[in-house]
Automatic annotation (TrEMBL):
Record key words, sorted: Calcium, Cell adhesion, Cell membrane, Glycoprotein, Membrane, Repeat, Signal, Transmembrane, Transmembrane helix
Classification via Pfam families: Cadherin (PF00028), Cadherin_2 (PF08266), Cadherin_C_2 (PF16492)
Protein name from the UniProt record: Protocadherin gamma-A11-like
Entry's localization field: Cell membrane
GO biological process, one term: homophilic cell adhesion via plasma membrane adhesion molecules
Keyword Kinase: no
Length: 829
């Protein structure tokens, strides 16, 4: 190359040399040589060019002188040749100056001669364009717009002229073009211009080659690699993985529970740091949820209540660092949890109910609410026990408690009804309500006596106002309905109101006697006692009280026969021919008491001849004990004691005269001589006759009076009494003894009848009841009791009168009959 350069510039050098040679002495000469000639290369011959003899050069001691001492060119004195002594690099010597020369002086001595030699250094293309760096790194954002300029460092070629940098080329050119601008200073500004947009997502790195070429021959070039790194521009918004996120969360879930995780991706690689947030969240959402801006985790922050919110719709936004956003929504279904117990509200309740309340009566109305939904809020209402109530549902959530069967306060006074409302959740929640229902009383029970009948026994001769018995009736009701009062039912007994016999304490039920009872008058009676409660209307019931009056031995036996008179002239006849066991007579006695008190026994207390007679202890029969002999006295006097069996016992005595004789005169004589008094005067007879007359008249009057009374008492006959056939007829107490003994408890009968068939004989039969009552049973006409009592009184009077009159008459007849000598014997005895 250097050779070529040399040859190119060579003719030019010669021209300059000749120009210089015209001025000798101090002439100058100019040569041109290319740079970079090898050391020793010929530059010019000054001997020739300056016209100097080679001898002169030697003698003149020609030499090269440079002011700076540089020695690029040397002188060969012998030949007069200038030769390159040192490498000459034009770029080093002159830089960018295109005209470059080396000048020095050639000095000759003897004589001094000075020649100026200029050697122009001609450029050769010895330098390639060079880029400052081997590689150019460019970072260009993909967002750069077409037309954008990117400066490149230009290449440098130290050569000058054509040898220096001429043009640049770029390869490839699909995105960039070159734009080369010349600056004012002549330098060039190399720029890359973006032609089409870059896309980092397609190609991240672009490799280009920039070539700089000079104009030398041969041409030299330099290249530089350009590495274009496409910088990411935030050209992609974050995109959520789902357009909406559906999830669910159970209510009451713990705080911090992960609800869901949202995630968005951004194709911009440099924008991975996506931030998440809720987009304009409501206050509720803010209070309940949080979103982790980094991870996209949505968590619970507050307490979720299904009853308040069943679903949440939250808009969520993802934002990259470039500010681009993407959005999605989260749909959160709240799952109901059975967390609400049913609530029972009593709307109305009647706390007391009468026991006669009908079936189906509403006792209470209540409302049950359960805030949960579905089965968790479906409530059933029930009562816990087998009570006579049931729950009815009228409307949704409204229930009523109604009676299901009849109520009975006497069975249950109070119900504690527990109402349970339970939902169908799992586990089920329930609540209870206690209702205390009182059953109020209705007077539906009558008092009930403890006994159907009461029997009371009371001893006769009781003190009036003595308590007899206490009756009691219970009433199952309550309060006034159970307050029992006692009454004696109205009724009569023997013509007197029952209340004149007994009274009752209406509060206590104690029954008192009102009067003293007489067993002989009244043996028993019954009363109805009524118990009545205080209800309205009142209820009542009855009981029968049988009152039995018990006998006391308050009556002594009464001797009915033989009739006791003061004279006791009545005598029983015993023929002397009587055998052993001959029935002389029979002592007849009665005791109006009954039972043991009326059980009579007979005893011979005194006798003229104890060996001759005996008395039957049971029957009172006086019989002979042995054969009567002629020696036996005519007159016998027996004292018989009749005793009852009461405690203490009561007794009566009777004197029985017995005459042992074959004929009546014998008896008369015997008896009239008993108490004969010979001192009676004759005129006594007159008195006796007078007395007889008076008595007879009285008797007739009495008869008339009695008949009058009888007529007045309608046609009622008086009682007639008749003794047993073997006994003498006596006008007095006429009991008849079938076998002559008193064997039965009740043997006394007072008969009164108008019926002639019934009037003659009354047989003894046992009685346990009031005589009068039994009379009616026996078929007799029952009269009014009062009348009977009056009749009884009258009969006693008449009886007494009869006794007196008959006795008197008997005495009178007796006295007059037996003559004066014995007229006094028994008349005044
Ligand atoms: C009902 O409950 C009350 C108090 O809770 C109690 O005093 C009463 O004895 C109960 N009644 C019944 C019949 O259980
Ligand atoms: C009670 O007795 C009276 C009369 O004796 C009668 O009228 C009434 O019906 C009776 N009452 C009852 C409940 O037996």
């Amino acid at each position: 190359m250097r050779r070529k350069g040399f040859f190119q510039t060579w003719p030019l050098c010669i021209v300059i040399a000749f120009t210089l040679s015209a001025h000798m002495a101090t002439g100058q000469i100019r040569y041109s040589i290319p740079e970079e000639m090898t050391v020793g290369s010929f530059v010019g011959n000054i001997g020739t060019d300056l016209g100097l003899e080679p001898k002169r050069l030697v003698s003149g001691k020609a030499r090269v002188f440079t002011a700076d001492g540089s020695e690029y060119v040397g002188l060969d004195k012998e030949k007069g040749d200038l030769i390159v002594k040192q490498r000459i690099d034009r770029e080093q010597l002159c830089g960018e100056l295109s005209a470059c020369s080396v000048s020095f002086n050639v000095i000759l001595e003897n004589p001094m001669e000075l020649y100026r030699v200029n050697v122009d250094i001609l450029d050769i293309n010895d330098n390639s364009p060079v880029f400052p760096k081997g590689e150019i790194q460019l970072e260009i954002s993909e967002a750069a717009l077409p037309g954008a300029h990117f400066s490149l460092e230009s290449a440098i070629d130290p050569d000058v002229g054509f040898n220096t940098l001429q043009k640049y080329t770029l390869h490839p050119t699909d995105h960039f073009n070159l734009n080369i601008q010349s600056r004012a200073d002549g330098s060039e500004n190399v720029e890359m211009v973006l032609q089409t947009a870059l896309d980092r997502e397609k190609t991240t790195n672009h490799y280009l080659t920039l070539t700089a070429v000079d104009g030398g021959k041969p041409q030299r070039s330099g290249t530089v690699k350009i590495h274009v790194l496409v910088l990411d521009a935030n050209d992609n918004a974050p995109v959520f993985s789902q357009s909406s996120y559906k999830t669910s969360v159970v209510e009451n879930a713990a705080k911090g529970t992960l609800v869901t995780t949202v995630s968005a991706t951004d194709e911009d690689e440099s924008n991975h740091n996506i931030q998440y947030y809720f987009e304009r969240p409501s206050a509720t959402v803010k209070a309940l949820f949080t979103i982790d801006s980094e991870s996209g985790e949505v968590r619970l922050k507050g307490e979720i209540d299904y009853e308040k919110h069943k679903q949440f719709k939250i808009k969520v936004t993802a934002k990259d660092h470039g500010g681009l956003t993407g959005s999605s929504e989260i749909l959160i279904d709240v799952i109901d949890v059975n967390d609400n117990t049913p609530k029972i509200t009593i709307m109305s309740f009647s706390s007391a109910l009468p026991e006669d309340t009908g079936i189906g009566t509403v006792v209470a109305m209540m409302n049950v609410q359960d805030l949960d939904s579905g089965d968790n809020g479906r409530v059933t209402c029930s009562i816990d026990r087998d009570f006579p109530f049931k729950i009815e549902s009228s409307l949704t959530n409204d229930y009523s408690l109604v009676t299901d069967s009849t109520l009975d306060r006497e069975l249950t006074q109070e119900y504690n009804i527990t109402i349970t409302a339970a939902d169908r959740g799992s586990p089920s929640l329930s609540s209870k309500k206690l209702l205390t229902l009182k059953i109020s009383d209705v007077n539906d029970h009558a008092p009930e006596f403890q006994q159907q009948t009461y029997n009371a026994y009371i001893l006769e001769n009781n003190s009036p106002s003595m308590s007899i018995i206490s009756v009691k009736a219970e009433d199952a009701d309550w309060g006034p309905n159970a307050r029992v009062s006692y009454f004696i039912a109205d009724g009569d007994l023997n013509g007197h109101p029952l209340t004149s016999y007994v009274s009752i304490n209406s509060d206590s039920g104690v029954i008192y006697a009102v009067k003293s009872f007489d067993f002989e008058q009244l043996k028993s009676f019954k009363i109805q006692v009524k118990a009545q409660d205080g209800g309205s209307p009142p209820l009542s019931s009855n009981t029968t009280l049988n009152i039995f009056i018990q006998d006391q031995n308050d009556n002594a036996p009464q001797i009915l026969y033989p009739v006791q008179t003061s004279s006791s002239v009545v005598a029983e006849m015993v023929p002397r021919s009587a055998d052993v066991g001959y029935l002389v007579t029979k002592v007849v006695a009665v005791d109006v008491d009954s039972g043991q008190n009326a059980w009579l026994s007979y005893k011979l207390q005194k006798a003229t001849d104890r060996a001759l007679f005996e008395v039957g202890a049971q029957n009172g029969e006086i019989r002979t004990v042995r054969q009567v002999t002629d020696k036996d006295a005519v007159k016998h006097r027996l004292t018989v004691v009749v005793e009852d069996n009461g405690q203490p016992s009561r007794s009566a005595t009777v004197i029985v005269n017995v005459a042992v004789a074959d004929s009546f005169p014998e008896v008369i004589s015997e008896f009239t001589n008993f108490n004969h008094d010979t001192t009676y005067s004759d005129n006594l007879t007159f008195y006796l006759i007078l007395a007889l007359v008076v008595v007879s008249v009285l008797f007739i009057f009495s008869l008339i009076a009695i008949i009058s009374v009888k007529i007045y008492r309608w046609r009622q006959n008086r009682l007639f009494y008749k003794s047993a056939p073997n006994l003498p007829v006596i006008p007095y107490y006429p009991p008849v003894y079938a076998d002559g003994t008193l064997q039965r408890v009740y043997n006394y009968e007072m008969c009164g009848t108008t019926d002639s068939r019934m009037s003659d004989i009354k047989f003894v039969r046992p009685y346990s009841q009031n005589t009068l009552v039994n009379m009616s049973r026996a078929g007799t006409v029952q009269r009014e009791k009062k009348e009977q009592e009056e009749d009884a009184d009258l009969s006693i009077e008449v009886r007494n009168l009869f006794t007196v009159l008959i006795y008197l008459a008997f005495s009178g007849i007796h006295c007059s009959h037996f003559g004066p000598q014995n007229r006094t014997d028994s008349c005044y005895d």
